[in-house]
Design a protein that fits this description.
By secondary structure, the protein is an alpha+beta fold. It has a single domain, classed as 3-Layer(aba) Sandwich (Extracellular Endonuclease, Chain A), CATH 3.40.570.10. It contains nine helices and 14 strands. The strands form four sheets. An eight-stranded mixed β-sheet has the order 1-2-3-6-11-12-13-14, sandwiched between helices. A two-stranded antiparallel sheet has the order 4-5. The protein is globular.
């Protein structure tokens, strides 16, 4: 995808920031990629990560072709690795890393299937209430009062419609530890929702879909020519308002092949006619901006497409 197309519908700050990353990467000799786990743009792997007792570390090439049925839910969700290890906590059907300074997640990880996203008349979204996460220390906890009158929606990172197996799963997506302030009209209720629906539609084709979602705080070039990171905070607890949001998706085919898509959207109203494909970015751009590594236990030989393009290997 050309940078010109990428910038359509995206803020000038994001376009300039991505251009800087892409230009700087082209100015250096590309590293020779080794056959290590990770996506094609990345040549190294992260340090050791905690793995549940029922999912011992194995060689990359021997990762099960499908999540083990008798494994813990955390092991199933985090099958391809943890993006980071800061303040990781789990709910019944998703796993997150919480940013205590910003009072929003670093990342939220989900494993979706056709069953988990299908309509369930026994699950009532209207019966769910937004609640502070009382497992978070009060010093670092976001409250509903922080959002009141702010002009921002309590934006789900793990979407409620992704978790329809039971009422408990859906209710847990309404914890404020799963939220970040999002522009409502034109974004959370519109273009971001379009992206969430696109991810759920993948479950019609792929038996396993893994999703990592989170906030970004990207720099913009100011009048003096210098780049600065600036973002708003809301409420008594000073909940950070991200400048952008990312979503990195890996879908597994029935044959065990993997496809990856990576998106960055500005936290602003976006015209309805803007295709979500305009927000596709190289996955390593998000990794550098977020300070995370995505899917680094993945066997790269199984990754056939990134952002719709066939992968090539050295």
């Amino acid at each position: 995808m050309s940078l010109g197309r990428l910038s359509v519908g995206v803020s000038a700050g994001l376009g300039g920031w991505l251009a800087g990353w892409l230009c700087s990467s082209k100015s250096e000799a590309p590293p020779r990629l080794r056959p290590l786990p990770g996506h094609p743009m990345f040549g190294t792997v992260s340090a050791a990560m905690p793995v549940p007792a029922d999912a011992p570390m194995r060689d990359v090439g021997t990762i099960d072709p499908a999540p083990a049925k008798n494994a813990s839910r955390v092991s199933q969700i985090m099958r391809f690795g943890f993006p980071g290890l800061d303040n990781v906590r789990s709910q019944s059907d998703y796993v997150l890393s919480y940013d205590r300074r910003a009072r929003v997640p670093h990342w939220v990880f989900e494993h979706l299937t056709a069953e988990s996203v299908q309509r369930n008349d026994e699950v009532d979204r209207a019966g769910c209430a937004f609640n502070a996460d009382e497992s978070i220390h009060p010093y670092f906890r976001a409250e509903n009062s922080d959002y009141k009158g702010s002009g921002y929606d309590r934006g789900h990172m793990a979407a409620a419609a992704n978790h329809r197996r039971c009422q408990e799963h859906q209710q847990e997506t309404f914890l404020l530890s799963n939220m970040a302030p999002q522009v409502g009209n034109g974004f959370n209720r519109d273009k971001w929702n379009d992206l969430e629906m696109h991810v759920r539609k993948l479950c019609k084709v792929f038996p396993n879909v893994y999703v990592c979602t989170g906030p970004l705080y990207l720099p913009r070039r100011e009048a003096d020519g210098r780049q600065r990171v600036s973002y708003e905070v809301i409420g008594r607890n000073q909940v950070a308002v991200p400048t952008h949001f990312y979503k990195v998706v890996v879908a597994e085919s029935p044959a065990g092949h993997l496809e990856m898509e990576a998106y960055v959207m500005p936290n602003q109203a976006i015209p309805n006619e803007t295709p979500i494909a305009n927000f596709l970015v190289p996955p390593d751009v998000i990794e550098r901006a977020a300070g995370l590594l995505f899917f680094d236990r993945m066997d790269r030989s199984r990754l056939k497409r990134v952002n719709g393009r066939k992968t090539t290997w050295l």
